[in-house]
# Entry
Amino acid sequence: MTDITNTLGIDIGSTTVKIVILDQERHILFSDYKRHFARIQETLADLLDEASEKLGDLQLRPVITGSGGLTLAQNISIPFVQEVIAVSSALQFQAPQTDVAIELGGEDAKIIYFENGN
# Structure
């Protein structure tokens, strides 16, 4: 079995689709976003094609977040992480000194408070 060390993060929001591909050290290999105009699957396919053109064929471990991501995650059987959990986890790793984060989306905003890095 091949060890998959690259991660594909997909964030499907109310207005945009965002993707990021990280290597095993969590360095960004590719990231981009596009407005989806209610064409979520087509927009995601376009972004994945762009990543493939830039990086070539990679084996990826995918995960989805965002308000529009749960149904897609269930339909294609990949993990879903609720967006506040995704933001909190990323900040704890990337910026552990963070006290407060504001996540602005197309439909709502969230404020996340941290105490002692949690």
Notes: Residues 40-55 form the longest helix (16 residues). DSSP finds three helices and six strands in the chain.
